Amino acid sequence: MRAHVLDSPLSYYAIFFVVRSVPTPICYRLGKLVALIIYCFSRTDREDLAGNLSIVLKQPAHSSAIRKMVRTVFLNYGQYMVDFFLTPQLSPRRVKELFTEIRGEEILKRALARGKGVIFLSAHVGNWEIGGSMLRMLGYPLTIVAMAHNTGMTNALVDQLRRDKGIRVVSMDRASHFSGIEILRHLRNNEIVAMNGDRDLSGRGRKVDFFGTPVNFPVGPVLMAMKSGAALIPAFVIREGSGTYCGLLEEPLPLFSGGSVEEDMDKNLALTAWVFEKYVRLYPDQWYSPDRITGEVRQ
């Protein structure tokens, strides 16, 4: 994972303790303040995010609309960080109030009825973490595949917050492949495995057309679905204007098969890119993508 100003044990533990000792409304104000400070001092991230949004919104990166959108993305991310650390300490009733509904839950139930497991395919759009808490409250078995942070202490804290909600974690880093055997085991037990598919952080992805430009996408989600027969369901958790969250599930992607592995992989990755384009266009202010999609991921 690329280092940034917040990805340090000091920052994460500070947020962790603040949300447990400060009233929630003040936490949200502090989240916005910290996000604005980071916005002011993170010139490279601002420029790269502006470049990405200019491709999506078809406007110059230096336009006032893009600059305003970049600022909003930072502010939304500040709220996301507060909610991530706040959710584990909330009662089930409060979590349900924060997470209003899952639209398309019947899609998930039909997929699980097939007995081959489900892969939730998501992207860095919305609050992909908080949906896990709601799924566990509803009794669904969930494992997430997560990129390792830059320090062991940060990993320990973040993963413990997930496990406290009954969420299993499969960790990966830039030097390793997905833990494919472990993922397949969960799928064969007819469980849900959640994976982000919009950033190739390992450097072993494949090129796909994304907003008219060739971008490397990770092959993990598609490859696991092709190998296991699990339903590959696009899933997103979007923050609404009221400050609550809504889960959005779509019908499983109709994966191609029958051609060569390479041909089927390219076609199936194109399907994932189409879905991600749709949600980024719908919620550009919740697309947390500070690395230029047209270039290599920075370290």
Structure write-up:
- With 299 residues, the protein is an alpha/beta fold.
- It has one domain.
- The chain is 49% helix and 17% strand.
- It has eleven helices and nine strands.
- A seven-stranded mixed beta sheet has the order 1-9-8-2-5-3-4, with helices on both faces. Strands 6-7 form a two-stranded antiparallel ribbon.
- Helix 8 links the parallel strand 3 and strand 4.
- Helix 3 packs across helix 4.
- It is globular and about 55 Å long.
- The chain starts with 8 loop residues before the first helix and ends in a 17-residue tail after the last helix.
- The mean pLDDT is 86.
Largest sheet: 7 strands, mixed
Query: What oligomeric arrangement do these chains adopt?
Result: single chain
The spatial strand order of the largest sheet comes to: 1-9-8-2-5-3-4
Gross geometry = globular
Tally of structural domains: 1
Report low-confidence residues grouped into runs of 5 or more: none
| Amino- and carboxy-terminal Cα gap | 7 Å
Number of strands: 9
β-strand amount: 15-25%
Task: Name the structural class.
Answer: alpha/beta
Relative helix content:
40-55%
Task: Give the ordered list of helices and strands.
Answer: HHHHHEHEHEHEHEEEHEEH
Number of helices, counting only DSSP H or I runs of 4 residues or more: 11
Rg measurement, Å: 19 Å
| Mean of residue pLDDT values | 86
SSE layout:
Blueprint: H1 9-21, H2 24-41, H3 43-57, H4 64-86, H5 92-98, E1 99-103, H6 105-113, E2 118-122, H7 130-137, E3 142-147, H8 152-164, E4 168-172, H9 180-188, E5 192-196, E6 206-210, E7 213-217, H10 220-228, E8 231-239, E9 245-249, H11 261-282
Parallel strand pairs: 1-9, 2-5, 2-8, 3-4, 3-5
Antiparallel strand pairs: 6-7, 8-9
Helix pairs in contact: 1-4, 2-4, 3-4, 9-10
